[in-house]
Each structure stands twice: as C-alpha cells, then as structure tokens.
Write a structure and sequence with these properties.
This protein is α/β, with parallel strands linked by helices. Helix content is about 50%, strand content about 10%. Strands 1-2-3-4 form a four-stranded parallel sheet. Strand 3, helix 4 and strand 4 form a beta-alpha-beta unit. Helix 1 runs parallel beside helix 2 and helix 5 packs parallel to helix 7. The longest helix is centred in the C-terminal third of the chain and has 23 residues.
C-alpha cells in the first residue's frame, strides 16, 4: 500500500507543478483516478489486450504500448481490431527509421526516448545532434501522415 500511495503522491506532485499529462509504466487505478479528478490526460502503460481493456475500464485517455519494439506495428494494428477507439502511443524503440510505420498503422502519437535523446551527445555537449534527431523523426511522422491523407511531403 505504501508503494501505491508513494506513486500516487509523485503523480499528484507533477500535476500540482503543472503537468498536463501523466505517462505511467502500468495500468494503475489510483493513478488514473488522480488524473481524472485533476483533469489531466492519462497514458498508462499496457501490453496485452487484457491490460488495454482494464485501462479503458478505469478511464485512460491514451494507452502507451510498451515495449512495442518487441512486436512491431502489426501488433498495435491487431489490437486496434477489438479496440478501434483506443488512442495508442507505441513506445520503446521508436526512431526516425520506423516512426512512419507506426503512424501508418494508426498510432495516435509516439513515445520516443533513445531514438531522440542520445546520452553521449548530451555528455559531449552536442545538442545539435538532438535537434537533428528530432527533425528526422518529425519528418518521418509528417511524411507518413501526409501519405494517409494524400497531401505532399512536409518540407525539411
């Protein structure tokens, strides 16, 4: 119980500090209730259809699919069959080379970590590499989105 209360307090602290959304590692009823009461967007982590169903039952706004790199965009697309209205956020292994695949498979948005933020670039003070990675991912996302609606590719 202390662990759940501690986690809930951390999330509440983030909300009081101005967080507009909460991404959590798992589906936690108490965390989802805190988000609902506070009017912030909730994005619990899930992997199985059972976890997705539980997240929906407890009021999740978005569902983080993690670790998506273990199964790929086809898995998310398959989950969209029984859950057509879920706004999935694939996370774990997303980078410029595969971001478009997830967008075309129906991702609402993407959770990007290591594909965007290089610890070595930060340690070396090479922040322009982070900007470059962000631009590459954004270009891949925009190109994928434009292909879905028939618009031309987005400019660099």
């Amino acid at each position: 119980m202390a662990k759940v209360d501690s986690a809930r307090l951390k999330f509440e602290g983030g909300i009081h500090a101005g967080a507009q959304f909460i991404v959590s590692p798992s589906v936690d009823k108490d965390v989802l209730a805190v988000c609902a009461r506070s009017g912030v967007v909730s994005c619990p982590g899930a992997f199985s259809a059972t976890e997705v169903a539980q997240a929906l039952k407890w009021g999740a706004d978005l569902v983080k699919l993690f670790p998506i790199s273990q199964v790929g965009p086809g898995y998310m697309k398959a989950l969209m069959g029984p859950f057509p209205r879920v706004r999935f956020v694939p996370t774990g292994g997303i980078e410029a080379g595969n971001a478009g695949e997830y967008v075309r498979a129906g991702a609402f948005c993407l959770g990007v970590g290591g594909g965007l933020v290089s610890k070595k670039a930060i340690a070396d003070g090479r922040f322009e590499l982070l900007t470059k990675a962000a631009k590459h991912i954004l270009r891949a996302v925009n190109n994928a989105r434009s292909s879905l609606v028939g618009k031309p590719d987005w400019p660099d």
